[in-house]
Each structure stands twice: as C-alpha cells, then as structure tokens.
Amino acid sequence: MSSSQVDATAPVYSPPQRAIHWLHAALIFATLPLGVAIGKAPPGAFSDATMNGLYNAHRSFGFLVLVVAVLRVATRVAKGAPAPVATLTPVERIASGAVHHLLYVMIFLVPLLGWAGTSAYRAEISVFGLFHLPHFVAENRALSEKLLGAHGAAAMVMALLVFAHIGGALMHLIVKRDGVFRRMWPGG
Fold this sequence. Notes:
The protein is mainly α. It has helices spanning 15-40, 48-79, 90-121, 141-176, and strands spanning 126-127, 131-132. It has a single domain, classed as Transmembrane di-heme cytochromes, Chain C (Fumarate Reductase Cytochrome B subunit, Up-down Bundle). It has a two-stranded antiparallel sheet. It is elongated, with a radius of gyration of 19 Å. The chain starts with 14 loop residues before the first helix and ends in a 12-residue tail after the last helix.
C-alpha cells in the first residue's frame, strides 16, 4: 500500500469505544482551559461569583473526566482493541503505546489530584449543582497547595500528551494515509 492510499479494511475500534474517546476529548478540551484560566487569573480579575462559577465548572467537568475514564477502561476491557496497523514502524509503535498508556494514567491522576487537593482545602465540590462529592483527604491547607500544584503540573503533562496524540493522528491522516486515523473516527 502506498502512502497515498487509505486501508479501508483495517479493523476499527467499536462504536462505544469511539463515542467514549470523542466524549472524553470534548470533556478534556472543556476542562483544561478552565483550569488554566483559573490558575492564571490575577487576583480580582473576576468577581467572586464568576470565580466560583469557573471553579464549579472545572470541578464538574473534571469529575466527568474521571467517570468517563472508568467507563473507558471498562469498555476497553470488554471490547479489547484492534491489532496495530501493519504500517506502523517500531518507533511509532513504541511512541504510540507510550502516549496512550500515559494518557490512560493521566485521565485518572489529574482529576484525582484535583479532588484530593480540593478535599484538603475543604472547598465544596458541587457537580453541576446536582450533588456534592465527599472529601476524602483530611483538612490540611499546606497539603492542599501541594496536591493542587501536582494537579496543575500533571494537567500540563496531559495537555502535552494530548497534543502529541493529535499530532500523531494528523500525521497518519495527512502524511501516511494508512487507516490509523479511521480506526477511531466516529464514522469509522
């Protein structure tokens, strides 16, 4: 197969896996910018009500990232994954595997660090005003600062991994045209 051909016979992920992938992407793209806006906002840039709304939205979307992560792993265990595309080089297989495994770690680690840091701070964690999450870390402001700092750093690592993932997907779509992108595309 030449680099200008798409392998339409390459196996694709199941429809539920593709739907969860894109839902997760949307949630992460909603959550990360909110976190950056909160973290970079100078004191007084937003009213208290606006800042509380940003925090609540960020925490709510973060909780959904965690819930969808659990659903994603359960679906992956139930459905498996198609075999790697034959056109992948050994370096691409290693890079792809590393990015995917690290992303799986981060979709759990980032929201859990945020939840733990917020718990230690003793801020209310309202999920879209529907219910409150319990605190699972003892109140400790110094620990909260450390946990929330780790949350922010892990979120930046996750953002870099997301951009690497997107770059790899676009390389397969535009340059290699080998069917890798189609495996996760909603229309498959």
